[in-house]
Amino acid sequence: xxxxxxxxxxxxxxxxxxxxxxxxxYRTVAERRRRxxxxxxxxxxxxxxxxxxxxxAGGTGKSPLTVALTELLQERGWQPVILSRGYGGxxxxxxxxxxxxxxxxxxxxxxxMLAAQSGCPVVVDPDRKRGAxxxxxxxxxxxxxxxxxxxxxxxxxDIELAVFDAARGIGNGALIPVGPLREPLERLASxxxxxxxxxxxxxxxxxxxxxxxxxxxxxxxxxxxxxLPPECLQGQSVRAVAGIGNPQRFFDTxxxxxxxxxxxxxPDHHRFTPEDLETxxxxxxxxxxxxxxxxxxxxxxxxxxxxxxxVLSESFTEAFMASVNHCRxxxxxxxxxxxxxx
Length: 342
Prior knowledge:
Blueprint: H1 4-9, H2 20-40, E1 49-53, H3 62-75, E2 80-84, E3 96-97, H4 104-107, H5 109-118, E4 122-124, H6 128-137, E5 143-147, E6 159-165, E7 193-197, E8 209-221, E9 227-228, E10 237-242, H7 247-256, E11 260-265, E12 284-288, H8 289-292, E13 303-312, H9 314-341
Parallel strand pairs: 1-5, 1-6, 2-4, 2-5, 6-7, 7-8, 10-11, 10-12, 12-13
Antiparallel strand pairs: 3-4, 8-9, 8-13
Helix pairs in contact: 3-5
């Protein structure tokens, strides 16, 4: 626990308890927004909609899980489209289709990374329902996977996955700003799957809790494209920079691979400059794939990207695909009924 947020939110105590009146206000506003959004829904999306999100602030591993789900769906014959808010990007027009030339300053860092890693169409729009209908009108795919949209209630959804970092868990269990929770734990009663990154959480009682692990798969040089196995970090001096929600997990992963780490944690979605990437003699600069998309134009030759992959259990993949197939059957049945009555 190295950051101020970690100390304030992710310990067992609640040092910000004087802010509890703001907790009540935050919860009231959030519940009002949720009710208003649910009541305003005027149509169901005609394909399955999967939402990957969390009820805690900070990084949990949502994006690697999103990529893993799209790979699984493609293996089973589906054509997934990823929806994203595009946090940190400022496009002139929405919806925005992410292509190879799209920069993270336009689309946001995560959509650019998701497009590169998944090979799926990625549609960015702060109004994810509008983005969903735009994607379907252009016949981009037959299932929608929304990255980080658990609280975006305007988007109708069929399957919800809530992701937790097992090391951090629910922190002190309080709502923002006293704790890290975006919504009360009771919200989990309405999600279909709880995914815990790195181990099981005893604080959470959910029938469908599954463990996910993030496995380092390769080191890729950001400048030359050269590939090395992660084992090459053994004994290597590393300047590790991370502008992600939970940088400590990245640093711990590098240390677990045997690297001698000199860490630098930066704010989530940090806009990198060349000065952020300075190293000492003999050091490798190592970063995440999410940060790398923002540094492609000015990274030094010793910049390496640690690529990780979400590893999911067979029991989860079968349960998830059963839910997807059930959703498709339900949509097909509704279409048949509407056609019959029409």
